[in-house]
């Protein structure tokens, strides 16, 4: 189960933070580390601060975009200060987030995403996620460095994993009942946007409307079967609209 839980670091500036994050992960049993366009990696400082976790660095995957890092994941949680301008579902308590992450990790990859040291994740990157989470720090001084944030959330994940029934105590959900991957949700939202424009509901791309719809479906958490039904509905509407235009 823990092997399905991925940590994604986006455009990390200091290589030492990559090593410290790897060490924080390994202490909690997490091993899947993906780097999105790091400024400097591999690097001796990353190796030095990883201490006994250099095996994670040896197996790290480096990709160009956040979409590449998370496309096969069914739940993607972006760690950030709460952005009320974005309607994406938000976990106020990290332990609630960890319980859901561990539940989904029974059968599918999931991810925790951390942004840059100086300013975290951009709005566009948060919108690639399915949820947000914040660490409830001291409101007068809530500054955590990257490795500290990884350590806190990795601890919550391990705590939830230890409390989760193991082995034969839980029967995994059938494939159709599982959550769709981020790639599948992206295709759905692109399809929905196309049909909204064809129908005249949107006369031009409208980022805020689409963000609200993305948040709506993130809260609803449709299963793969339900998403397939929605895609079938959109395909039928699309064919009807095309036939009407030709007539």
Could you give a quick summary of the protein structure above?
The protein is 48% helix and 12% strand.
Describe this structure in words.
This protein is α/β, with parallel strands linked by helices and 247 residues long. The chain folds into two domains: 168 residues, 3-Layer(aba) Sandwich (Alpha/beta knot), CATH 3.40.1280; 70 residues, Orthogonal Bundle (Helicase, Ruva Protein, domain 3), CATH 1.10.8.590. It is built from ten helices and seven strands. A seven-stranded parallel β-sheet has the order 3-2-1-6-4-7-5. The protein is globular. The termini are far apart.
Keywords:
globular, 247 residues, Helicase, Ruva Protein, domain 3, Alpha/beta knot, 7-stranded parallel β-sheet, alpha/beta, 12% strand, 2 domains, 48% helix
**CATH topology (fold) name of the largest domain:** Alpha/beta knot
Widest sheet: strand order?
A: 3-2-1-6-4-7-5
Overall geometry comes to: globular
What low-confidence regions span 5 or more consecutive residues with pLDDT below 50?
none
CATH superfamily label of the largest domain: SPOUT methyltransferase, trefoil knot domain
Helical amount: 40-55%
Structural class: alpha/beta
Q: Number of DSSP helices?
A: 10
**How many separate domains make up the residues?**
2
What is the total tally of β strands? 7
Assess the beta-strand content as a share of residues. 5-15%
What is the oligomeric state here? single chain
Distance between the termini: 54 Å
CATH architecture of the largest domain: 3-Layer(aba) Sandwich
Order of helices and strands: EHEHHEHEEHEHEHHHH
- Residue-averaged pLDDT: 92
User: Quick one: biggest sheet?
Assistant: 7 strands, parallel
What is the CATH class of the largest domain?
Alpha Beta
What is the alpha-carbon Rg in Å?
A: 20 Å
């Amino acid at each position: 189960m823990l092997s399905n839980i991925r940590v994604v670091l986006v455009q990390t500036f200091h290589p030492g933070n990559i090593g410290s994050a790897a060490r924080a992960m390994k202490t909690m049993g997490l091993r899947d580390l993906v780097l999105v366009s790091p400024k400097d990696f591999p690097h001796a400082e990353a190796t030095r601060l990883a201490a006994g976790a250099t095996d994670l660095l040896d197996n790290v995957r480096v990709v160009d975009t956040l979409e590449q890092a998370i496309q096969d994941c069914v739940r993607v949680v972006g760690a950030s200060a709460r952005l009320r301008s974005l309607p994406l579902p938000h976990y106020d308590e990290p332990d609630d987030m960890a319980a859901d992450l561990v539940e989904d990790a029974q059968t599918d990859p999931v991810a925790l995403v951390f942004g840059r040291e100086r300013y975290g994740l951009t709005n566009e990157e948060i919108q690639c996620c399915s949820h947000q989470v914040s660490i409830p720090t001291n409101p007068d001084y809530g500054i955590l460095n990257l490795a500290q944030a990884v350590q806190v959330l990795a601890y919550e994940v391990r705590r939830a994993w230890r409390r989760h029934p193991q082995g034969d105590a839980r029967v995994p959900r059938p494939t159709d009942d599982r959550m769709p991957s981020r790639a599948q949700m992206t295709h759905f939202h692109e399809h929905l946007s196309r049909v909204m424009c064809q129908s005249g509901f949107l006369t031009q791309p409208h980022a805020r409307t689409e963000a609200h719809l993305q948040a709506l479906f993130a809260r609803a958490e449709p299963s793969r079967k339900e998403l397939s039904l929605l895609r079938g509905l959109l395909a039928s509407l699309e064919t009807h609209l095309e036939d009407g235009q030709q007539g």
